[in-house]
Amino acid sequence: MQYRTLQRKPFLHTCFALTAAMLLITSPVCGQQQKPKKKQPPFRWVNELKQELPGVQHATFRSPSMKVDVGYCIYLPPQYSAPQNGKQRFPVVYYLHGGRPGSETKSVRLAEHIHKHISAREVPPMIYVFVNGGPVSHYNMPDREHAMGEDVFVKELIPHIDSTYRTIADRKGRGIEGFSQGGRGTTRIMFKHPELFCSAAPDGAGHATEKRISEENGRESPNLVFIKGDNTYDLARKYAKHPEPELRILIHVGTKGFNYQNNLAYMEFLKSLQIPFEQLIVPDVPHSAMQIYEKDGLKIMQFHADNFRRAAQKT
Q1: What pTM, to 2 d.p., does this model score?
Q2: Is 129 exposed, middle or buried (0-12, 13-18, 19+ CB in 10 A)?
Q3: Distance from C-alpha of 156 to C-alpha of 71, rounded to nearest angstrom
Q4: How distant is the alpha carbon of residue 23 from its chain centre?
Q5: φ, ψ (nearest 5 deg) of residue 219
Q6: With contact defined as beta carbons under 8 Å apart, do 98 and 179 qualify?
Q7: Pairing between strand 174-179 and 92-96?
Q8: What is the pLDDT of residues 126-160, one digit of tens each?
Q9: Higher per-residue pLDDT: 51 or 4
Q10: Are 87 and 51 in contact (CB under 8 A)?
């Protein structure tokens, strides 16, 4: 028995050695098969819409400040082009995409769900505008050329949309929504400009990063520093001191998204400031705007529609 045991050890060591060698060869870390990281495409203010989507058009306008063309995608509901509605005006939801850098095509596939619910008359007709957030999505970067993403949206795109399409050109017919980076942008902009929007629905925003920016005087990373106070925490504190006009807010997030816990923490923060909001927690959904809309997009649209109805009744 002892001899057999001793004789098996070299065999086992050989097996382990061969197995380890195979793992090293096939390992993406040690072998030659490691996939390079996918490079982000270079930022462009105008991006081609490469797919046909119901009711969606791609268009551009000339930025007065930058002297360059800026792209956007716009969803027009079927009722917009109906002859009998030639004078009817429609509310607008501005959708801020996730990720960096910006592109007006990043979240546009949501129009499939938007069109489905409007066509089924589950919600009143609304226009959706898909925004290009600029090189550092939805932030102003005054030290960089052509990088004032927030100003291009707030000061230039909104007036262009109101002058080009039959919108309700007032806060009572204007909403803002966004996912991830766009959720961060939505939260910052809604608290900065409550005079522009009656309805706001940030989704899956990275509030942990925004909290760090607040605590580190605008610093997100060594190479990325924003204006002090331009974050979802400091702007909420500022709004809480003078909460006018009243914002109706829906915070929505999937329970399997990596920003789930910090969204719960941000909700507690808003409660501490006595800022009212509604919440939509979507079970078993990861960090995905499409999957949020597949499950509960109708509820988000109904939230906006209800706010537009309430605002119209007050005037």
Answers
A1: 0.86
A2: buried
A3: 12
A4: 40
A5: -90, 115
A6: yes
A7: parallel
A8: 999 999 988 888 888 888 889 888 999 999 999 99
A9: 51
A10: no
172 in Cβ contact with 198 (< 8 Å): yes
Q: What is the pLDDT of residue 133?
A: 85
Instruction: Provide the CATH number for the domain formed by 56-314 in this structure.
Output: 3.40.50.1820
* Inter-residue contact 138 to 149 (CB < 8 Å): yes
CA distance 154 to 133: 11
Which one has a higher pLDDT value, 312 or 9? 312
**101 three-state secondary structure:** coil
Q: Which residues of 18-47 are buried (b: 16+ CB within 10 A; e: fewer)?
A: eeeeeeeeeeeeeeeeeeeeeeeeebbbeb
Q: Say what the pLDDT of residue 103 is.
A: 86
Distance, CA of 34 to CA of 26 (rounded, Å):
9
Backbone angles phi, psi at 123, to 5 degrees: -140, 155
Q: In the chain, where do the E strands start and end?
A: 56-62, 69-75, 92-96, 127-131, 174-179, 199-203, 219-221, 224-225, 248-254, 278-282
Assess contact for 134 and 145: CB atoms under 8 A. Answer: no
As a whole number, mean pLDDT of residues 154-169 equals 98
Assess contact for 197 and 176: CB atoms under 8 A.
yes
223 to each of 101, 136, 219, 226, how far by Cα in Å?
A: 15, 12, 8, 10
Range scoring the smallest mean pLDDT among 139-153, 204-218, 262-276: 139-153
Enumerate the domain spans of the chain.
1-31, 56-314
Q: In the chain, what percentage of residues exceed pLDDT 70? A: 88
**DSSP single-letter state for residue 98:** P
Tokens of 297: 């997009």
